[in-house]
Amino acid sequence: MVERPKSDKLYERALRVIPGGVNSPVRAFAAVGGKPVFIDRGEKAELIDADGNRYIDFCGSWGPLILGHAHPEVLQAIGETAAMGTSFGASSHLEVELAEYVIGKVKPLEKIRFVSSGTEAVMSAIRLARGFTGRDKIIKFNGCYHGHTDYLLVKAGSGLATFGEPSSRGVPADFAAHTLVADLDDMDSVTGHFNRYGDQIAAMIIEPIPANNGLLLQRPEFLKFLREITARHGALLIFDEVISGFRVGWGGAAEMYGIIPDLMTFGKVIGGGLPVGALGGRAEIMDKLSPLGGVYQAGTLSGNPVAMAAGLKTLQILERDNGYVKLEILGGYFEQALKQALKKTVAQVIRVGSIIWTVYQKDAPRRTDRIDTAAIDKFNRDHRAILDKGVYLPPSGYEVMFVSLAHTKPMLDRAAAIIGEVSGA
Ligand SMILES: *Cc1c(COP(=O)(O)O)cnc(C)c1O
Predict the structure, then answer these.
(1) Of 129, 194, 331, 347, which cross-links 354 as Cys (Cβ 3.0–4.6 Å)?
(2) What's the pLDDT tens digit per position in 393-425?
(3) Which CATH code is given to the segment(s) 72-319?
(4) Is the CB of 270 under 6 A from ligand 1?
(5) Tens digits of per-residue pLDDT, 235-280?
(6) Given the residues 268, 288, 313, 378, the one annotated as active site
(7) What is the DSSP letter of 31?
(8) DSSP classification of residue 289
(9) 55 lines ligand 1 (CB under 6 A)
(10) Would the pTM count as exceeding 0.90?
(11) Domain 5-70+322-423 -> CATH class
(12) Which of 310, 336, 328, 309 is nearest to 249 (CA)?
């Protein structure tokens, strides 16, 4: 077992002053056991912990770091922008530039507004959908994560076609009462809600590439059905592309599946490692936001110049370097290496572009209840041994891996071999 005395000391100190020692719960390594690792720095595709141990990183800060850590050109853009002032509370040119750039790449967008996190983007998009339609109810899917807004921290209630129940303490049942929960890959569960509440449903929100509860790739027909049924009932379709946006290609999942949602939300990659979220869609809808319309939405640090600079530079580098083509090649290479390394065990290696999930069961699940808890337990049991051999996987079997442009084929080979050594027997 690798000893990490400095990491352990930091964790002890953190436990005294921060709940659970962490500022976001999954960082506590609760699912995989053992103490969390404190990171000192990132270099390209590697993390270096407080004790100087190196890891090939497949977390990528949970998705944003598509170029890898500390990309020199992104750092330069951040430095040059910060030197001119870090925040003005007034408009500046970088907001316009990033907005123009993003709208130029993502077909369903006519207007966009920047916020500071994915949670905020989704919360604002739902308020906007409600304001635009004059309706209150929303549909979300079991197993999709949309940030920690109260009425989205909801799981399916018991019984068919019922309202959701809060999945967190501190969320009044009333707040969940407007949230209907449907199942992925299940048209009947969606139709049931529309049959009962069709004229009260403001919006349906989905991760078109569900990647927060394993990687539950959906059938294209299912997503097309969602577009059709929402349009038929006058409800908006919101694609939460906080992970998939600028990760699977320029147009995200919307382009991949050839579907035009009414609203889209972004985060993660769009901020290049700094706090940025965004919501966008048709002008007719977006113009309902204040100051033009009656849907209030605001933010002290929204459109922050330093964050805009990091996001814009990241996207420009992806374009210049043919990023998505390379990521597809690297992702495919890693998929094959993992399949080879795990061929003696029961495992699925599921991939879209540079998002990869391994799950130790016989079939690829499309919905939450098809994930075998024993498969997740196996991942969680093996996590520490893989970490100790120098591969940093996200600390839960339900989390996906991200490949970046900084990963090299030898690194991917080495990581696959280590995963195979630990989990492949
Ligand atoms: C990460 C994520 C969010 C929340 O974003 P934060 O920046 O963590 O608030 C929302 N939706 C999806 C699909 C996400 O993956």
Answers:
(1) 331
(2) 999 999 999 999 999 999 999 999 999 999 998
(3) 3.40.640.10
(4) no
(5) 999 999 999 999 999 999 999 999 999 999 999 999 999 999 999 9
(6) 268
(7) T
(8) B
(9) no
(10) yes
(11) alpha beta
(12) 328
